[in-house]
Amino acid sequence: MKLWKDAPPRRTPDLDLDKLDRNGPEGGAFVFWLVILLWPLRDVVEGRSQPVWAAVPALLAFTVVHIAVARTAFDGRVPIKVPVGLLIVEAGVASASTAAFGHRWFTLWPLLGLATGVVVGHMPRQTKGPELPMLVGIGGVSALCIIVSAAAGEDGQTILGSWYGVVTAALVTAVLLRLFTVIRMLREAREELAKAAVEQERLRFSRDLHDLLGHTLSLMVVKAQAVRLVAERDPAVAAEQAADIENVGRQALGEVRQAVSGYRGRGLGDELDAAVTALADSGVDAAVRRAGPPLPPEPDALLGWAVREGVTNVIRHSGARHCTITIRNDGGSATVQIIDDGTGPGRHTAEAVDTMQADEAGGNGDRLRADALRLSLGPGGHGLRGLAERMEAAGGTLETGPAPGGGFLLTATVPI
Hints:
The structure is a single chain. The protein is α+β, with helices and mostly antiparallel strands. The chain has helices at residues 27-31, 38-45, 52-74, 81-101, 108-121, 132-151, 156-230, 235-260, 268-281, 297-318, 348-357, 364-374, 383-393; strands at 285-291, 322-329, 333-340, 397-402, 408-415. Helix 3 packs antiparallel against helix 4 and helix 6 (132-151) packs antiparallel against helix 7. It is rod-shaped.
């Protein structure tokens, strides 16, 4: 005998949520079932329901109240206590009519069960405990059906049939209405999730573009200013800087394409190489220290963003002469620490220029960097905020502020 090791896949019907009715049935769908009243009406016409002057008003009263219950239960402007009160009136009319006229008038009970399901299906449900509206509503109506039928002297088969009709109609109707309520809630939740996904993607894209282009464009502006300053007196150096601009531009174009396709970063190793080059071109001595094994892809990419943003801020705002980047992986978490000896954007240009002009090997390359840094970009951007959002989303942290011995310190930590 063959035994199932794994449960067989469950059959799933092909349903399109968008094609399902958002609100489900309306009150008119439950008014239609008044067609059942043709049976007691036949008793009235054939003279089996006497006196006629009492039977006809009873039939009309039940019809009007049933319609009122169905209409008010679906109308959100009407308090729920109104259809509840009308349901009690309908139950009283049904009880009096079946007790007085008997025979086919017992078909009123399934209609009363239908009305009960409509009201119960629109009542609020408690978060804990039993479903009181169903227990009280459906249980009360079904018990009333048994009591009235027994008091009228009906046999057991008639009583059982009436009770079954009441319970079935009420339960099916209530469950159906609750089901459509859940469908509506799921549709609304899906729409909200879709909106949230769009907002997250917009945030990701804007953050990626800022992080990708902020550093690259800063470097390109510095080099372009250098080309303009030395183009006439040293064409060879200007050509070298122009070639660097071309390479940086091509690299930025590739990174933008990667960001559009959803790629998050180019990795820590490449960012460190680019950071060392950018710092050197800006006249900042760079030192990189690494401890621990290589990082998994996601932490590697996140710390790469931290290096990119931190080094961009060093170049643009710090006025630093030295910058140290430290990478640590202790197995449980990974940390990047960027510390510089700068004093802020106000003295950035002057200190960097003085340092490079005082260099013993201060040839054209150092002089052009000094001239370019005089025109360096001012403060701005929201890179640290975007970086903090990245770290928070990954369960990491970002700390920035003055370093203990002077300068500025950026520390980013992500779990592994």
